[in-house]
Amino acid sequence: MRAASIAALPPVVAMACALMLPQAARGADYLRGSQIEQPIEAPAFGSGSFDWSGFYFGGGAGVSDTKFKPGEGLQTLANYAFRNTMLGAEHNLGSWVGNLQEKRDSGAQFFGFTGYNYLFGDVVLGFEADYTRSGLSYGVSDSIGRRVVTSDGALNDVRMTTNQGAKLNDYATLRLRMGWAYGRVMPYATIGGAVGRFNTTSTIQSTWFITRSNPITGATEAFYATGYTPTNPSVVGGSKKNTYAFGLSAGAGVDWAVTDNLFLRAEYQIVRFAEIEGTTTTVNTGRVAAALKF
Questions:
Q1: pTM score of the predicted model
Q2: Backbone angles phi, psi at 208, to 5 degrees
Q3: In DSSP terms, which residues pair with 208 in a beta bridge?
Q4: Is residue 113 situated within a structural domain?
Q5: Residue 10 banded pLDDT, cuts 50, 70, 90
Q6: Which helix (H) or strand (E) holds 76?
Q7: How many CB atoms lie within 10 A of CB 32?
């Protein structure tokens, strides 16, 4: 509406028209989007501050590949089986027992964990303990026969059957945890100790047949040594339940805070146990978990 036309209107109407024109212009500008200076962008993954310090606990599952490696325990048992004999004194029967092949077992495992974090700027330091149900196991056996002559002229036919096995029932670790906070995402590494509960088997079963000339009569004698017969063989070693082995643990992973009290985890962990009853055990596990933080 032109100014001349407004002036021709009655004074009250003219004043109302003059006040409405600027409001209408601003409304048109708003509809055209002139009030939006920048588009709104979605926050980047892991953005936003998060306090990683405090107590937490959770649980999860993983898949483990466990390597069982037989050691030198069977060689010691072989020598012990023929202790206090001329055969044992003149021959190293432990050297007859070959090293049994390592075995692997894999499967699902379930675990729970708890810990506490301290926050120093972006650096996270803490302690964590976990408990894992396992049940992975192995068993291996071998048999060897040898014929040797002792200094008394006796011909000795010896056969030994070896059995080695172990089952990792469960284990626990206590680890130092070191991480770096990128907002709601925290990669970390761990190192610490471990203790495992095993059932083990380590035995040698032996028979011993002797052929010799009688020193008085000269007649040839052939017989099984007492306690080494096929019906009553010599057995050394045995099976044990709930034996404990100590070891070391290390790993790496990443935590992601979904909310202020819930985070998810993906982790790789390796645990190596010292030799127990002739078996050394190494557990490699990839696992995922969820936890609550307080």
A1: 0.77
A2: -145, 115
A3: 158
A4: yes
A5: low
A6: helix 73-81
A7: 9
